[in-house]
Amino acid sequence: MPELPEVETIVRQLRPRLVGRRLLRVEVRWARSIARPSVRKFCDGLAGRRIDALRRRGKFFVLDLDDGCALVGHLRMTGRLVVGRRPDEAFARVVFELDRGERLVFSDVRKFGRLALVARLDEATGDIGPEPLELQGDWLHAALAARRRRLKPLLLDQSFLAGLGNIYVDESLHRAGLHPLRSSERVTRRQADTLARAIRETLTNAIAAEGSSFDTFYRTPEGRPGAFQDEFAVYGRGGRPCRSCGATIRRLVVGQRGTHVCPKCQPAPRGVRP
DNA sequence: CAAGACTCCTGACGGC
DNA sequence: TGCCGTCAGGAGTCTT
User: Where are the domains of chain A?
Assistant: First the structure.
């Protein structure tokens, strides 16, 4: 579920509540939520540590600890982080006891989310691409030309660009007027500039709206839903009129992912029947 | 190297 | 009301 704007919102809201606090004890209720090291070493390694910083890298959140290690997590589809004295969390998978009688809870209905305790960030994230908020057209153009892939799966590939998911790829491609099946190597320099700007603007607007919520799952740590779902141009709007041109938004499947496209704003590449 | 199938999980929703 | 199929904001692995 959470993509870059949702993780950024969570990090911003939790930062003042977590930085400087101590982790007293860790309880793991679903062992596979811990990616590494072992559950035992995870709990032992965190007990007594102070949180020095909270930040984001792609869709990962990172708690830097006072011993130089980091608690790194990925929320995948349904993960959440909540802080409170008695957080109401029916699906708690990992519970961290903090000082001052509070708890940090990692809850996750579908159990896809993962936490890791690592000495170096890339042990948890692997080799991931650059941050999309700093994306520049010249780099993007060269990177697209170096691959021969359809735009949508490439933009979803975290080793190419770190942070975009299904919603924001569809929204960014619509904003840039590019079809998700367009071949990456055929994107012109000018189109790459437009796409880079569309990605930055889409994400910036989504962060300003505190992300997107359209079911019971994503809530900011303050408990509020995001508001960006009200600004969706195409995502989840199949069969409805495009807000820019009035054409009917189409839903197709690309790389096993639901994909939303305006046939007029995003002309299909050669050989693709719209 | 690229792309598709399948897997990990649970809950919500539509149809019958 | 109940059962069943389908779908979901992610990503790793294996096969073609």
Answer: 4-125, 132-261
